[in-house]
Amino acid sequence: MLPMFIWAFIVGGLICVFGQLLFDVAKLTPGHTLSLLVVIGAVLDGFGLYEPLIDFAGAGATIPITSFGNSLVHGALQEAEQHGIVGVLTGMFEVTSSGISAAIIFGFIGALLFRPKG
């Protein structure tokens, strides 16, 4: 069980290091960096490479933002098999809706509890 934790730490850390390098070396903005990481996760899932990474690294691959791209494509492909082209849109929303809803709700609660700056 310890090797599983170690690999999760290493893989998640490498994804984060890659994102930090995009900030520091490539001088990308946070929006560009996040978008690129989501697209990378989506492309990897499109080629069938992200699920084996999740099987290998567990939370090290599901926690970083690349997993959001994976979820979008994975849901779209699953629903497209069952419902055709309409399933592409509904699949993306079906799989990611709970995470997006949670982010909105917890962001709102955080704004109520603390003084937002901006």
From TrEMBL:
Membrane-crossing residues?
6-26, 33-50, 95-114
Record carries keyword Transmembrane: yes
Top-level lineage group: Bacteria
Q: Does the keyword Plastid apply?
A: no
Please name the InterPro entries in this protein's record: Spore_V_AE, SpoVA
PANTHER family from the UniProt entry: STAGE V SPORULATION PROTEIN AC-RELATED, STAGE V SPORULATION PROTEIN AEB
Task: Indicate what this protein is called per its UniProt record.
Answer: Stage V sporulation protein AE
Q: Which organism is it from?
A: Cytobacillus dafuensis (Bacillus dafuensis)
Organism lineage reads as:
Bacteria, Bacillati, Bacillota, Bacilli, Bacillales
